[in-house]
Design brief:
Number of strands: 4
Strand order of the largest sheet: 2-1-3-4
Low-confidence stretches: 144-161
Number of helices: 6
Length: 161
């Protein structure tokens, strides 16, 4: 768990050091701006911006039940951050697995990416997609509700009108 916080902590420490230097040189305005910028960078690179992670096995079980996509991610990954931001509020509908906190999640990602821990890896209907387009993932997030509505019913053919 500590590994996920290394980058944000380093960003805050570096920002604090730069702000202290600016204050010592008599530039408190610059110091405040630098500190705010580094704190914002730390927040964006922290696990706090992502929905709560669950274990890979639990995510796969839930996905099998309701069809929601499983997103394997890790803190500090720019592509994961891009996906999270582009999904907006819809990101909460996906099942998120932090591969740094869950060894089973890391193993699942390595199994579909030739031994590499390449993230984000999104699994939809049992099929993995490495670093998919956020618009495609957003479209997949809207599908589970339709699947739930169709569960137990046969698809209608065009001739039954």
């Amino acid at each position: 768990m500590m590994r996920a916080w290394i980058l944000p902590i380093l960003l805050v420490l570096c920002g604090s050091a730069l702000a202290t230097g600016s204050t010592a040189r008599g530039n408190p305005g610059v110091a405040a701006a630098v500190l705010v910028a580094f704190v914002l960078l730390a927040a964006v690179n922290s696990p706090l911006i992502f929905p709560r992670s669950i274990g890979a096995l639990e995510a796969q079980r839930r996905s099998a039940e309701d069809g929601r996509p499983v997103v394997f991610w890790r803190p500090g990954c720019a592509y994961c951050l891009r996906l999270r931001i582009r999904l907006g509020r819809g990101a909460r509908r996906a099942l998120w697995v932090d591969i740094w906190r869950d060894p089973a999640g890391a193993a699942a990602v390595r199994a579909v990416n030739d031994g590499n821990e390449t993230v984000p890896t999104v699994v939809v209907a049992g099929r993995p997609h490495t670093n998919p387009d956020p618009a495609w993932v957003r479209a997949q997030l809207s599908l589970p509700r339709r699947r739930e509505g169709l569960r137990g019913r046969k698809p209608s053919s065009g001739s039954e009108r």
